[in-house]
Automatic annotation (TrEMBL):
The keyword DNA-binding applies. SMART domains: HTH_XRE. InterPro entries: Cro/C1-type_HTH, Lambda_DNA-bd_dom_sf, TransReg_Diox_bact_type. It comes from Antarcticimicrobium luteum. CDD domains: HTH_XRE. PROSITE patterns: HTH_CROC1 (PS50943). This is XRE family transcriptional regulator. Residues 58-112 form the HTH cro/C1-type domain. The lineage of its organism: Bacteria, Pseudomonadati, Pseudomonadota, Alphaproteobacteria, Rhodobacterales. Keywords: DNA-binding.
Length: 114
């Protein structure tokens, strides 16, 4: 079955644009569903801008969650001094430590790793 159809270029462009619009709408619907299901979250622009400006991700996410260094350390099972050293850049933190902190903050490990 090797049938061909010829349509004017304008009609092809219109159909192409409609297909792209449909894909965008489907992506939007998936994003809204993920937000409603609690699978994704919106991060306020203030915190996004801090990350984009190079501020330490651990500090930004800790502030986003409303935790003190001591509270985060206790929740993650790490020393408060370790949290301070990672936030100030004196230490990078081991993968194990960063994973514990990421879990305590409910973010992906990649969000904290530089």
């Amino acid at each position: 079955m090797n049938e061909m159809v010829t349509i004017p270029r304008e009609e092809y462009d219109r159909l192409q644009a409609a297909a792209e619009d449909l894909a965008d709408l489907q992506s939007f619907d998936r994003a809204k569903a993920a937000l409603a299901a609690g699978e994704e979250e919106l991060v306020p622009a203030e915190f996004v801008n801090r990350l984009l400006n190079g501020e330490n991700a651990l500090r930004v996410y800790r502030d986003l969650r409303g935790l003190t260094q001591a509270a985060l350390a206790a929740k993650a099972g790490v020393n408060r001094v370790t949290v301070t050293e990672i936030e100030t850049g004196r230490k990078q933190g081991s993968v194990t430590t960063l994973r514990a902190l990421a879990n305590a903050l409910d973010v992906a490990l990649d969000d904290l790793a530089e």
